[in-house]
Specification:
Strand order of the largest sheet: 1-2-3-4-5-6-8-9
CATH architecture of the largest domain: Alpha-Beta Barrel
Bound molecules: ligand G3I
CATH superfamily of the largest domain: Glycosidases
Structural class: alpha/beta
CATH class of the largest domain: Alpha Beta
Length: 470
């Protein structure tokens, strides 16, 4: 029986390939193309090493192929854009905006009012002088947001203004000490005036640790309610989501469920939730096993589910591409990203890819198109952004794209590959089959009937598809 199916498959497969009808299977699927199908943004920072030109070309190729939103790791911060008073430096930021436009990507600006990476002159010249600090902050926002008006789609207007333990405003901040909490409200108003169409976020970490009044997110929620009631132009909350993988109590380090609870509360206020700086690191110095990496992939997927499933969530941004270039070492963590040191995708990549592939939006919700009805902005919905441009960009940047596949019964036929690596995953993203050096076809006789994701890699060609084994 299987032999007959296999033969039939060979004949059909050859017929399809030679008739040029295998298109449905020929296009490469990336995180980016699948994110766009699901109306969400998926992204990664451009590391500071990219700005310095110190990364292999493969990094940029991966970045523009897999992601549709970008943010600079350090290059749009206060110390980078206004290193001395009134002398603005937009070189690196312009470079990123140009790259983003050339590749059809959305741009996040990070960050306008933050206690860290403020150049020394601010405190030295104006520390504790409220009037002068208000002038300095306004001038900075006017210039920076004004410079990128219409090009930076969203800004972290205020970053990390809440302290970690007993939630209250963070005391050690030149802005808070000199101005008081009103620097926050003012920053939003100034940013909105400088670019009325930019989406404006409050961004912070540890927001996945619950929404009780004792937790940071609980404190933040009270502030968001007040801002909304007072007409402060805030449109989104960014959850940095720098979390640690641990086998101990997950709730100690936060959980996807807690972040989802925050998303739901924000929805009631018509405010979006974005995941803006995700990494899931392991403690430095421990051996990280294959099953650790698979568990890490599952956690990446659980955070992605919030973005896919909550109507007011639209962005899933990772704080780095490869473990080789990551800030996590400074936090005593390691291996928190989705590509390894050699720029090979990790199980977390597969987990995200498979989830994006098999996500089916609930029938009864008009997912994402209804995100935030903000009347002060022309357009805040994902639907109305640069989807057309990005599609073109993907087509251009999808790499060789010459590999195609077709399945008949238990046989997988591969065209355009000389020596492919084939990986099969179940619909939860767990690996079920793997083979190297495949040419022509391979028998998946040990894989039982059902739906699977299969990935074929040959050199730089990389094709992932959903298949049914019957
Ligand atoms: O620019 C100097 C350079 O001139 C010098 O040669 C070099 C030597 O160490 O240091 C360079 O500055 C470093 C800068 O990154 C640029 O590479 C700083 O020392 C270093 O502290 C800084 O770290 C950044 C950190 O923010 C600072 O707070 C990390 O790269 C960046 O990933 C991190 O990003 C933050 C987000 O903005 C906010 N959320 C948390 C996140 C992680 O901490």
């Amino acid at each position: 029986m299987r032999t007959q199916q296999t033969l039939a498959g060979v004949v059909l497969g050859i017929a399809l390939f030679s008739a040029g009808l295998s298109n449905a299977f020929a296009a490469d699927e990336t995180l980016r193309s699948l994110a766009e199908k699901n109306n969400i943004y998926i992204g990664a920072i451009l590391n500071s090493q990219w700005f310095g030109g110190g990364l292999p070309g493969q990094y940029e190729q991966i970045h523009k192929t897999q992601f549709n939103i970008v943010v600079a790791e350090n290059e749009m911060k206060f110390d980078a854009t206004e290193p001395s008073e009134g002398r603005f430096n937009y070189g690196n930021g312009d470079k990123m905006v140009k790259y983003a436009k050339a590749n059809g990507m959305r741009v996040r600006g990070h960050a306008l009012a933050w206690h860290s990476q403020v150049p020394g002159w601010v405190d030295q010249k104006y520390g504790k002088n409220k009037k002068e600090l208000l002038r300095v902050l306004k001038n900075h926002i006017d210039n920076v947001v004004g410079h990128w008006k219409g090009q930076v789609d969203e800004w972290d207007v205020v970053n990390e203004a809440i302290s970690n333990n007993e939630p209250q405003w963070r005391g050690y901040s030149v802005w808070y000490q000199g101005i008081g909490p009103e620097f926050i409200d003012s920053a939003f108003v100034w940013a909105h005036a400088a670019d009325p169409n930019a989406e404006l976020c409050y961004n912070d970490y540890n927001l996945e640790q619950g929404i009780s009044p004792k937790a940071k997110a609980g404190f933040l929620l009270e502030q968001v309610k007040r801002w909304v009631a007072n007409g402060i132009p805030i449109h989104c909350v960014g959850s940095q989501t720098h979390v640690e993988d641990t086998t101990t109590d997950k709730h100690f380090i936060g959980s996807p469920d807690s972040l989802r609870a925050l998303a739901k509360e924000l929805a009631k206020l018509n405010i979006k939730l974005k995941i803006t700086e995700l990494d899931i690191g392991f403690k430095s110095g421990i051996n990280v096993s294959k099953s650790d990496l698979e568990r890490q992939g599952k956690t990446f997927r659980e955070y992605l589910d919030i973005i896919l499933e909550e109507p007011n969530a639209d962005t899933y941004l990772i704080w780095g591409v490869s473990d080789k270039w990551s800030w996590l070492g400074g936090l005593n963590r390691q291996k928190g990203l989705i590509y390894d040191d050699n720029l090979n995708p990790k199980p977390a990549f597969d987990s995200i890819l498979v989830r994006l592939q098999n996500f089916e939006p609930p029938q009864d919700t008009a997912k994402k198109d209804t995100v935030v009805a903000d009347t002060s902005k022309k357009d805040t919905t994902v639907k109305d952004t640069t989807v057309k441009d990005t599609t073109t960009a993907i087509a251009k940047s999808a790499g060789p794209g010459s590999v195609s596949m077709y399945v008949a019964g238990h046989t997988l036929f591969i065209a355009g590959a000389n020596s492919a690596k084939v990986d099969v995953f179940d619909m939860q993203g767990r690996p079920v089959f793997s083979a190297k050096n495949v040419k022509g076809s391979i028998d998946l006789k040990d894989v039982s009937e059902g739906l699977y994701m299969v990935r074929v890699r040959d050199g730089s060609a990389n094709l992932t598809k959903r298949i049914a084994i019957k």
